[in-house]
Amino acid sequence: MKKLTDKELAVMNVLWDCGALSMRDIVERMPEPQPHFNTVATFVRRLEQGGMIKHRELGARFFLYEPAMSRERYAELVNKESVNRFFNGSYMDFISCLVNQEEVSIEELKELINMVEKRK
User: Fold this and answer.
1) Which long-range contacts (C-beta less than 8 Å, at least 24 apart) are formed by 94-103?
2) Residues 40, 26: contact at Cβ < 8 Å?
3) pTM greater than 0.85 (yes/no)
4) pLDDT digits over 36-73, tens only?
5) How many angstroms separate the CA atoms of 101 and 35, rounded?
């Protein structure tokens, strides 16, 4: 899985937040400074080639673009790749790193434990 660039991620966030949109609607919802229409079209084409976006033709040269992968699924794949790459596949080492960097509080860890216990 290829990690998205910041600009590709901006396009995906628009689609994840809004659902199916025309190219013009995507451009209008892009964060400032708003990129040129052709630039966004290039990102959309790349994202579609990469399997992140799909389109539906509603009329002659009128397409709606929508995510082919959910935000959650993409985050899952990116996280899995990062854990494999930096922590030899160990989620325990990853969480330990977050705890050591004080990115996760004791309360949050207790919440995680409760979530795991409820799944059993």
Assistant:
1) none
2) yes
3) no
4) 999 999 999 999 999 999 999 988 889 999 999 999 99
5) 36
**Residue at 93: amino acid letter:** D
Please tell me what DSSP assigns to residue 2: P
What sections of the chain are H helices per DSSP?
6-18, 23-29, 37-49, 71-87, 91-100, 106-119
pLDDT per residue as tens digits for the range 2-34: 789 999 999 999 999 999 999 999 999 999 898
Amino acid (1-letter code) at residue 68: A
Domains and CATH numbers, the chain: 6-67 (1.10.10.10), 90-119 (no CATH)
